[in-house]
């Protein structure tokens, strides 16, 4: 097993997660099996009880682990499935050691940071590094990111553990990469290396000598700066890698490859990468980066949420939207709307903010309402749901977004004016959303419905089912304490709000879809967690397609993107031909329709939210699709 430790200096948030992911991407592209570990030195057991304003979103794994968002980067970059133990915290380590002490496993000895805590860290790393993350094959390389910055008091046990670990696994199996900031103050206009020198000196003082120094900067830095860092930090010039701010994170692995990182790691860790494999490295990433630079059209999406002041609160949602937009051939323009500013109280207290947020919402091509907890901003989300429903605006609600859509429908269509969730009003007469039996009100951590669960689709046709490829079931990740009250489902469905997906007990509603609407979909699960750059999540893909007026034609193609569209060439002619076929292919008195599998009779008619493809194309596409072209 080979280990690459990634540390950070000068400031936190310097980009260690992307750098660590890029190391893994480079090695994976060379045919190696790679796993990742993220170390967070805080005392919390996991990230489950954090506010999104603390460290960004809480990322959920298949096994229900609530972890740091950097593990989302690892999964997206490497296309692997990590586990809760791939996220190490000080809380987990101390909990493990204390439990052993209570059981008497230390045989009466004094339990200390060294050796007991440091040994526990090393044993944890070795155990997790051997765990398969892609199929059954054992990983060959483990990338370890140490959170925080060198010198933080809470991270000292981990630094000491890895000082010992480098001798435990031998030099040829351990490599350290230090990520540091090289600022360029506006007063001087030149890069300053002193912070990096100090950071490396401190790291070396703790017994770890970096093999690679990755310099983060706003703009590219010249060879003179690299030479200076090399001289003062005891590394060769080719071991100083400069990564400046780039237009897309997809360019980071490519820039690292250009700087000879693969060759260095191959020699330093004796990886035996064959030259033939190196020549084929990163072709998919190169194509992805090239596509991201050649997009000419833009789709405007409004994200109506509670934590919009900190974009990392919705990191996976943003990535999933970017993946879908890139697949369709559009740049994503994401407008963050604070849901509390859409409420009537804001109209009275700050009318300018109220109208500004509503203008952003009205000018969007599509709307996404993500998850969240608590009462703040919930009425604004409900108002956004109502506006999308009444104005036929493409809409995707996730978790709380689904619940808000159900409450809005109950209030304004069923006439249940006091409809609410018991999270907000436990005494409401019409609890459309209720807490789950496993919800423990006195214990917050790890008591939600977490991890990958199976959703069973109903037999009737639906857009969301077709976007997934018409499977009977789909597995997605969950994170919620509340769910739709099954008592109200018949009333809601009778008025057109269909529940097209549920769990295996048929009691928990998983997916909603509004009849006779271009795209009004809600999911109780979080589809963003399984979105990948080359495999966008179907609900997000549907939102983007509907927002640019191309969803009916995409479904008519059998849920495939046209080659011309994928290359970002204009596909207007193709779109018009498909639309014409849909509109004119009605045979034998209207009993035959164009379906994803060709021409079939009414039994196999293509339906879009309860509307035939002909009707949907008439109402949504007209003679020419909105925003110029189809998929």
Task: Walk me through what this model shows.
- With 631 residues, this protein is α/β, with parallel strands linked by helices.
- The chain folds into two domains: 2-291, Rossmann fold; 295-436 and 447-572, 3-Layer(aba) Sandwich (Rossmann fold).
- Helices cover 37% and strands 20% of the residues.
- It contains 24 helices and 25 strands.
- The protein has a nine-stranded mixed β-sheet with strand order 11-10-12-13-21-20-19-16-17, sandwiched between helices.
- α1 runs parallel beside α3 (70-78), α4 packs across α5 (113-129) and α23 packs across α24 (613-621).
- The longest helix has 17 residues, at 113-129.
- It is an enzyme of class 6 (ligase).
- Residues 311-544 form the Glutamine amidotransferase domain.
Topology (elements, then pairings):
Elements lengths: L1 E7 L7 H14 L4 E7 L11 H4 L3 E2 L5 E2 L2 H9 L8 E3 H13 L10 H17 L11 E6 L9 H13 L5 E8 L12 H12 L6 E6 L5 H11 L6 E5 L6 H8 L2 H8 L6 H5 L3 H11 L3 E9 L9 H14 L1 E9 L5 H6 L1 H12 L3 E4 L8 H13 L4 E4 L1 H13 L6 E3 L8 E6 L13 E9 L5 H5 L5 E8 L1 E3 L4 H6 L2 E6 L6 E6 L5 E4 L14 H10 L3 H6 L6 H4 L5 H13 L7 E4 L2 E4 L5 E2 L2 E2 H9 L10
Parallel strand pairs: 1-6, 1-7, 2-5, 2-6, 7-8, 8-9, 10-11, 10-12, 12-13, 13-21, 14-15
Antiparallel strand pairs: 3-4, 15-18, 16-17, 16-19, 19-20, 20-21, 22-23, 24-25
Helix pairs in contact: 1-3, 1-9, 4-5, 5-6, 13-20, 16-17, 23-24
């Amino acid at each position: 097993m080979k280990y690459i430790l990634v540390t950070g200096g000068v400031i936190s948030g310097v980009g260690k997660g992307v750098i660590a992911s890029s190391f893994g991407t480079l090695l994976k592209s060379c045919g190696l099996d790679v796993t990742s570990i993220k170390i967070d030195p805080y005392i919390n057991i996991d990230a489950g009880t954090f506010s999104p304003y603390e460290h960004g979103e809480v990322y959920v794994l298949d096994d229900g682990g609530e972890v740091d968002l950097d593990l989302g980067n690892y999964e997206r970059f490497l296309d692997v499935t990590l586990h809760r133990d791939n996220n190490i915290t000080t809380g987990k380590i101390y909990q493990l050691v204390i439990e052993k002490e209570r059981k008497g496993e230390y045989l009466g000895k004094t339990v200390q940071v060294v050796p007991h805590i440091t040994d526990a860290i090393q044993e944890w790393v070795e155990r997790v590094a051997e765990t398969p993350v892609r199929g059954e094959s054992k990983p060959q390389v483990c990338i370890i990111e140490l959170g925080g910055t060198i010198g933080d008091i809470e991270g000292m046990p981990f630094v000491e553990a890895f000082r010992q670990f480098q001798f435990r696994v031998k030099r040829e199996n351990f490599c350290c990469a230090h990520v540091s900031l090289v600022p360029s103050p506006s007063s001087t206009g030149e890069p300053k290396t002193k912070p990096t020198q100090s950071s490396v000196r401190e790291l070396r003082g703790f017994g770890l000598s970096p093999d690679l120094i990755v310099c983060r900067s706003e703009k590219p830095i010249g060879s003179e700066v690299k030479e200076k860092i090399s001289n003062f930090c005891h590394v060769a010039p080719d071991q100083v890698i400069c990564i400046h701010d780039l237009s897309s994170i997809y360019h980071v692995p490519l820039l690292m490859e250009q700087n000879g990182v693969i060759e260095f790691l191959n020699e330093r860790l004796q990886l035996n990468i064959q030259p033939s494999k190196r020549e084929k490295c990163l072709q998919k990433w190169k194509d992805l980066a090239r596509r991201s630079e050649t997009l000419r059209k833009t789709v405007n999406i409004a994200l109506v949420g509670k934590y919009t002041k900190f974009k990392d609160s919705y990191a996976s949602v943003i990535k999933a939207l970017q993946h879908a937009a890139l697949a369709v051939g559009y740049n994503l323009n994401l407008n963050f709307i604070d849901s509390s500013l859409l409420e009537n109280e804001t109209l009275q207290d700050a009318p300018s903010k109220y109208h500004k947020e509503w203008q952003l919402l009205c000018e969007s091509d599509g709307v996404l309402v993500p998850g969240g907890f608590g009462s703040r901003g919930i009425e604004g989300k409900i108002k956004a749901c109502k506006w999308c429903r009444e104005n036929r605006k493409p809409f995707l609600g996730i978790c709380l977004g689904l619940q808000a859509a159900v409450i809005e429908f109950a209030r304004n269509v069923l006439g249940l004016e006091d409809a609410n969730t018991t999270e907000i009003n436990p005494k409401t007469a019409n609890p459309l959303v209720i807490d789950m039996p496993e919800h423990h009100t006195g214990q917050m951590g790890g008591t939600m419905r977490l991890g990958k669960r199976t959703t069973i689709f109903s037999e009737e046709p639906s857009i969301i089912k077709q976007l997934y490829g018409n499977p009977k079931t789909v597995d997605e990740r969950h994170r919620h304490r509340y769910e739709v009250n099954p008592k109200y489902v018949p009333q809601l469905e009778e008025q057109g709000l269909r529940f097209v997906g549920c769990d295996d007990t048929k009691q928990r509603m998983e997916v909603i879809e509004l009849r006779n609407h271009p795209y009004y979909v809600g999911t109780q699960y979080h589809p963003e967690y399984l979105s990948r750059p080359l495999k966008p999540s179907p609900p997000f893909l549907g939102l983007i397609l509907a927002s640019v007026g191309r969803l009916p034609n995409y479904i008519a193609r059998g849920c495939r993107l046209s080659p011309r569209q994928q290359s970002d060439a204009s596909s207007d002619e193709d779109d018009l031909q498909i639309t014409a076929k849909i509109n004119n292919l009605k045979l034998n008195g209207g009993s035959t329709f164009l379906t994803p599998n060709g021409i079939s009779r009414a039994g196999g008619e293509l339906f879009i939210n309860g509307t035939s493809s002909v009707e949907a194309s008439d109402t949504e596409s007209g003679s020419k699709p909105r925003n110029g072209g189809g998929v």
